[in-house]
């Protein structure tokens, strides 16, 4: 298969060839009709000319015939013969133009009868002259009939030419419309066919952007599209290697740090318990600070590993039809002891909605938001989980009555390990990865999570599209 540029050129030539062929046929048909019209006009002129010539020759024949009978003049007889030959030529011209029939034969027979009257004795010349005059009246009637036939023939040919012109025009219009429709269909078909590899390229780029690196990229199409596909596949493999290197590095660092941290924590515990001797007040304070920071550092390392694991798991969704309202109730029940201990009221509202999601990861995202809401809610407050379904998406809102997010923290609230300035006094300090994990899981579903900034209290909204 050629390159995209070559295929586009072939498609353009094919689409342009359809109206081009139709236009060429229209030119050919128009030329043929013009030539045919010109021929018909020449024939009509020839027939009309022959009709007038026949009428003139008939008048000349009558004049010379009657004068030759009255005057017995041989010169007038020869002139009669010349007029008769000219009249026969006009009849032959009519026959060549398409008017040959019994009227022509009658005219010839009548002219021969008149010519016979020119022969005879001189004493019968006047009688023969009167008979010739009567015969010429009949010949004039035949001339009138021939002229009427000529007009009828010219009219019929004109009507036939007009009907043919109308039929050709109708056929050409049908072919023009057919070529335009076919060209449009070809343009649509070529557009879809040529755009399909680009849609696959777009899907592959989105796949890399979402770090779904387990799907191989193999896009069929023009040669240049295949080259881009190969480069994207190389990039996918490279990203897979980098991801594996990152995970391996984190595991190695955590393993290497856990051992000395454990030794530090145990050593600080032994010192605090007085195993190595009684400590003074200042020494005990230093040991307490050392032990507390050792525990904090260990928690940070474990949080880093947890976030890395969550980011990896977000790329491996196991979707299945899930009742989102039931999922909300399940998360509320799972943390019942926590919110009941703070005398909170948790309300779940909304219609049942079934969506193709990974219930474990979406449940973990909802659970993290609910855990945050419990942590920041004042005792006796209310937490509200709302489910709203629209034709193309579903919204899940989690609202609490806590202090909300400080203005300076709102743009960074989803950053890993970031903790805002408004922290609850009666709760343990968080690791700062809960909202980051929520964002990872929701983004893996093709959705978004955001902080509703116009709400004074804590209000997070998850938006999930209907899975296609």
Highest CATH level, the class of the largest domain:
Mainly Alpha
Overall tally of structural domains? 3
Q: Terminal Cα separation, in Å? A: 31 Å
Arithmetic mean pLDDT: 78
Number of E-state strands: 7
CATH topology of the largest domain: Four Helix Bundle (Hemerythrin (Met), subunit A)
Shape: rod-shaped
- The helix/strand order is HHHHHHEHHEEHEEHEE
- Pairing-aware structural class of the strands and helices? alpha+beta
Q: How would you sum up the major sheet?
A: 5 strands, mixed
Please compute the radius of gyration using only Cα atoms: 54 Å
Name of the CATH architecture of the largest domain:
Up-down Bundle
Unreliable segments of 5+ consecutive residues? none
Concise synopsis of the structure shown:
The chain is of the alpha+beta class and 468 residues long.
Description:
The protein is an alpha+beta fold and 468 residues long. It folds into 3 domains: 4-185, Up-down Bundle (Four Helix Bundle (Hemerythrin (Met), subunit A)), CATH 1.20.120.1730; 224-313, Helix Hairpins; 320-465, Heat Shock Protein 90 (2-Layer Sandwich). Helix content is 69%, strand content 8%. It contains 10 helices and 7 strands. It has helices spanning 4-71, 74-96, 102-117, 125-209, 223-272, 281-313, 324-334, 336-341, 359-376, 434-444, and strands spanning 320-323, 345-349, 354-357, 382-389, 393-399, 448-451, 459-465. The chain has a 5-stranded mixed beta sheet with strand order 2-4-5-7-6. Helix 9 packs antiparallel against helix 10 (434-444). The two termini are 31 Å apart. The mean pLDDT is 78.
């Amino acid at each position: 298969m050629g390159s995209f540029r070559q295929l586009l050129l072939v498609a353009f030539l094919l689409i342009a060839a359809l109206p081009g062929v139709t236009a060429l046929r229209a030119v050919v048909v128009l030329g043929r009709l013009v030539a045919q019209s010109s021929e018909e006009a020449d024939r009509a002129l020839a027939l009309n000319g022959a009709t007038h010539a026949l009428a003139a020759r008939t008048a000349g024949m009558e004049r010379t015939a009657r004068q030759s009978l009255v005057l017995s003049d041989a010169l007038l007889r020869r002139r009669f013969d010349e007029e008769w030959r000219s009249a026969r030529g006009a009849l032959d011209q009519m026959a060549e133009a398409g008017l040959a029939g019994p009227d022509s034969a009658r005219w010839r027979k009548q002219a021969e009868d008149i010519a016979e009257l020119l022969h005879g004795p001189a004493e019968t010349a006047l009688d023969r002259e009167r008979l010739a005059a009567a015969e010429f009246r009949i010949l004039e009637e035949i001339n009138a009939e021939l002229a009427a036939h000529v007009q009828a023939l010219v009219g019929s040919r004109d009507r036939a030419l007009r009907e043919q012109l109308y039929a050709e025009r109708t056929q050409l219009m049908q072919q023009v419309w057919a070529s335009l429709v076919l060209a449009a269909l070809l343009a649509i078909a070529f557009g879809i066919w040529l755009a399909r590899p680009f849609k696959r390229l777009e899907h592959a780029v989105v796949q890399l952007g979402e770090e779904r690196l387990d799907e191989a990229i193999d896009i069929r199409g023009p040669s240049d599209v295949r080259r881009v596909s190969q480069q994207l596949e190389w990039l996918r493999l490279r990203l897979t290697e980098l991801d594996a290197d990152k995970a391996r590095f984190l595991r190695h660092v955590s393993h290497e740090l856990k051992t000395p941290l454990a030794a530090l924590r145990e050593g600080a515990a032994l010192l605090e318990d007085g195993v190595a001797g009684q400590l003074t007040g200042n020494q005990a304070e230093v040991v307490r600070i050392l032990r507390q920071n050792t525990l904090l550092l260990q928690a940070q390392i474990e949080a880093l590993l947890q976030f890395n694991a969550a980011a990896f798991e977000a790329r491996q969704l196991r979707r299945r039809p899930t009742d989102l309202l039931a999922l909300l109730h399940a998360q509320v029940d799972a943390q019942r002891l926590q919110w009941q201990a703070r005398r909170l009221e948790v309300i779940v509202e909304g219609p049942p909605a079934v969506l193709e999601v990974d219930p474990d990861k979406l449940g973990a995202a909802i659970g993290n938001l609910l855990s945050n809401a419990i942590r920041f809610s004042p005792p006796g407050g209310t937490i509200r989980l709302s489910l709203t379904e629209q034709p193309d998406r579903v919204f899940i809102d989690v609202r609490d009555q806590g202090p909300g997010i400080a203005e300076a923290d709102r743009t960074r609230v989803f950053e890993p390990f970031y903790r805002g300035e408004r922290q609850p006094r009666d709760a343990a300090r968080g690791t700062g990865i809960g909202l980051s994990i929520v964002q990872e899981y929701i983004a893996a579903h093709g959705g978004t999570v955001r902080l509703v900034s116009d709400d004074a209290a804590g209000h997070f909204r998850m938006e999930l599209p209907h899975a296609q």
